[in-house]
Amino acid sequence: MQTLIGVLLLIGLGFVFGRYAEQRHFKRLRQEEARLQSILVFNTKEVPAQFQPCRVSLVGGNTVIAVDYFKSFVASLRNIVGGNVSSFESLIERARRESIVRMKQEAEQLGANAVFNMRIETSAIGQGDDKSQVSVEVYAYGTAVVSDEPVR
Amino acid sequence: MTLTNIETIPGKTIVSHLGLVQGNTVRAKHVGRDFMAGLKNLVGGELVGYTELLQESREQAVERMTEQAIAIGANAVINVRFSTSSVTSGAAELFAYGTAVVVE
């Protein structure tokens, strides 16, 4: 009985604080994305003539994000019936957007106009003995282009 | 040393290709950080300690790759790629590789 109460408490804690943290994070992400909108991101390899002459540099940003008890509980329920595990979808979306924002911030410090050939790499790390502890690392990287002349 | 993950360096000509260069690091996690991560697993969210740890490791992998490139007389590395793999449950390997070239 006591373990059940303990588990329910942890799930409740995860639900309340996890949801609060997630909403706050999404709000901050929207603000940062709006601010950094002027830095264009491409996943093509060619740098068009309008950006040249230019200097190039490798930039990247990473994020490690962990699941909360509520999310892993919901996911374990989902495993029974199948379907979208939306609680994990939003988690990875947060990590990915945060990584792109960090990459753009690094590009911004260099004074870059654009980032070319952006790639995103996702890997599960730090999986302990307990399978429910999942943390995911997302790394976004690309070639920042700093134009010497203003882009037309 | 110029690093890019595209196949060229805009505005410069590649004089010669010197082949693949690579760098890797295997990092284990810190006990204190592991403890904090365990706490974070209750409420979710970003594990700042791990983010920094992996970023440092990745920089080190890139540094080792750059050293290798300098050693064979290159002045740029193109087509840089990263990969991460978990070797055991407690450690992660970060790997960076690319093609060393001479540009002018």
TrEMBL record, chain A:
UniProt signal peptide: none
InterPro entries cross-referenced by the UniProt entry: UPF0145_dom_sf, UPF0145_YbjQ-like
Domain of life: Bacteria
Cross-referenced Pfam families: YbjQ_1
UniProt family annotation: Belongs to the UPF0145 family.
PANTHER family: UPF0145 PROTEIN SCO3412, UPF0145 PROTEIN YBJQ
HAMAP family: UPF0145 (MF_00338)
Official protein name in the record: UPF0145 protein HER31_04275
